[in-house]
Amino acid sequence: MKLKVYADRMSQPSRAVIIFCKVNGIDFEEIKVDISKGQQYSPEFRDINPMRNVPAIVDGKFKLFESHAILIYLACAFPGVADHWWAMAYFKIPLSVKYLLNTVLAPVFGLPLNPEAAAEGEELLSSSLYKIESIWLKGNGRFLLGGNQPSIADLSLACEIMQLEVLDEKDRARLLGPHKKVQQWVENTRNATRPHFDEVHNILFRAKERIQKQRSAEADSVSGRKTLLSKI
Amino acid sequence: MKLKVYADRMSQPSRAVIIFCKVNGIDFEEIKVDISKGQQYSPEFRDINPMRNVPAIVDGKFKLFESHAILIYLACAFPGVADHWWAMAYFKIPLSVKYLLNTVLAPVFGLPLNPEAAAEGEELLSSSLYKIESIWLKGNGRFLLGGNQPSIADLSLACEIMQLEVLDEKDRARLLGPHKKVQQWVENTRNATRPHFDEVHNILFRAKERIQKQRSAEADSVSGRKTLLSKI
User: What ipTM did this prediction achieve?
Assistant: First the structure.
């Protein structure tokens, strides 16, 4: 029975699992669980993953959730996966969630923007980016821990950093700008996993376009109101 | 080459991995990394686990750290592991660390006790115990999700709850007392994995004895001072 991957490509851990399967030639069926429609709360999905989040997999009689756990399982269970993926199989560092939730994502979920939480999130994110650069990317290797081929941790973490793409260009430049090594490493990970990396991230680029259009429309409407006010 | 498990039995994720190996007949060599002596910071251990925490494993050319990741790897890589361990392979819920750190463990690390943080930790712990009981142990099953045999999550979580053994009896009764189902389920996990569960937890029981003796000595000394003061 073919591996089933329950995922929403809008979620970065979902993307990491899908890219991993594609890069390693793992035959799988992708089943979309649309988070924006709350499909993770359906009774069918509860039987797949009682934690009700994506990604989750079903491989024959095995069910598994949490992307790090899934990636380790896939690397272990599918003999075609190359050894270099194991060089760093588990790595977590607080990254973008808090910042993104309190900037771009709050309005999406109908939550108020919280500048204080956003500032805390930015501090955490910057400190993590600094750590990645100064500890995990020190030396001349192209990947984490000085490797020359990507590991599970490279893919996982690069997918998480890609989530920053939805930010306003100005904010993105402020956050990622000082970390040239991080930018280069995301690019290396992208190159090592292409064309799948770009294909799977397409949904994010489209979301970015939508958000940018919305921002321009809002800016126009504000400047329109200002012009109108100045004429009154 | 035999599997190497780098562990300190004083750490609950270390214990979960060791018990798992023993219960499943996995041939392994246990290498003690004494946290109380800071051995996780040695250059030798850095090469095993750059995150410098235990447990970590080396299996031939694979290095891996983080207990959940390790347990999934072991279940996958060793054919003798029974299927029931997969029923719930990944589960994390905030449990005892914050409470323990601000009650029993602070003096061990030379930190001041923080009653406010302890109260927050207790609230978190109680709410997690309530969730385990009302969601994950609902129904008549002996294990999480209604299973009749333990999964990786049962072992991991039961080992974490066992850490509460080092508490003062009064505190332990207050915290665990209202959760009879949780107590029964820890006992079920213990029975399903004996004699290894008890053998590996022995270090914790010995630590408990030491802490209790210390508490009695302190209480005696306080009451002695009070008697002396009342005589002055």
Answer: 0.83
